[in-house]
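Action item from last week, closing it out:
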Amino acid sequence: VVAAEASPLRGNYLLASDGGVFAENGATFYGGAGHIDLAQPMTAMACASDGLGYWLVAEDGGLFCYGTARYPQAHTAWMATPHGAIVAAYIDEGDMVLVEANARSHRIAL
């Protein structure tokens, strides 16, 4: 398990490095990337503010959306810029914040 996230509604999620998602304590499962041959391992996840979806984030910044979580348009441009390994993700004031291993963060408008 590389990340854990509390659902805004109930329960919590655990994320495995292979993209597998485990919904616990009443959280709803919306899907996972465990069946996908990933270029880089998963390192972070963030729940949608409505509690009806989540984003999975790979070390290289790759983003996978489930439930009501939507792919942010600005993410494509951000992926084209050099960045370090992503180790954390969270939602803040309607933006996704991706955090690199060196603690540098990137805000992406949702």
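Closing note: The radius of gyration is 13 Å.
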